[in-house]
Amino acid sequence: MPSTSRIPRSALVLGWLGVLPFAALALLAVTGGVLPNGSAMSGLVQYGLIILSFMGGAQWGLAMRAASSDDSFEGWRLTISVLPALAAFGLSFLPAGSALLGLAGAFVALLGYDVLAARAGMAPAWYPALRLQLTGAVVVCLLVAAGFGLR
């Protein structure tokens, strides 16, 4: 992986564009907003589930790129990469407030794994800095909305 710690502009812009729906839906959720097909709270949960699964897919790609001849270690990395999608599936059955809390926890846990993956050379050096920014913003949005949804 490249050793530069400077976040590429495209990754930074696209990452923050991905945060915008979290912020917009959280704002709508705390103000009681509705979407054409349901509540903003439900929309926030759905978007969070999608993005959590997407982030697991990113780990799958990193694991494949870093594949070694050690099948047990490679299998471990691939197993971890499918956990976000499985967590998202399980969280989809919970009430919105609980699902938002679960999503926040899952994003934080995945951030921890992403940092370890970068330190192990599986991801670019800039990846943890980007993930910290984006995850911080996403978790704040999820927790604010959950706080209003659990009252």
Q: Which spans have pLDDT < 50 for at least 5 consecutive residues?
A: none
**Shape, principal axes of CA atoms:** globular
What is the number of domains? 1
User: What is the tally of beta strands?
Assistant: 2
**Main sheet overview:** 2 strands, antiparallel
Radius of gyration: 16 Å
In percent, how helical is the residue content? over 70%
* H/I helix tally: 5
User: Taking all residues together, what is the mean pLDDT?
Assistant: 90
The portion of residues forming beta strands comes to under 5%
Structural class given helices, strands, pairing? mainly alpha
What is the element string, with H for helices and E for strands? HEEHHHH
Widest β-sheet, arrangement of strands: 1-2
Distance between the termini: 46 Å
Provide a quick synopsis of the model:
This protein has one domain (39-149). 77% of the residues lie in helices and 3% in strands.
Task: Describe the overall structure.
The chain is mostly helical and 151 residues long. It has one domain (39-149). It is built from five helices and two strands, in the order αββαααα. It has helices at residues 9-30, 40-65, 71-91, 96-119, 127-149; strands at 34-35, 38-39. A two-stranded antiparallel sheet has the order 1-2. Strand 1 (34-35) and strand 2 (38-39) form a beta hairpin.
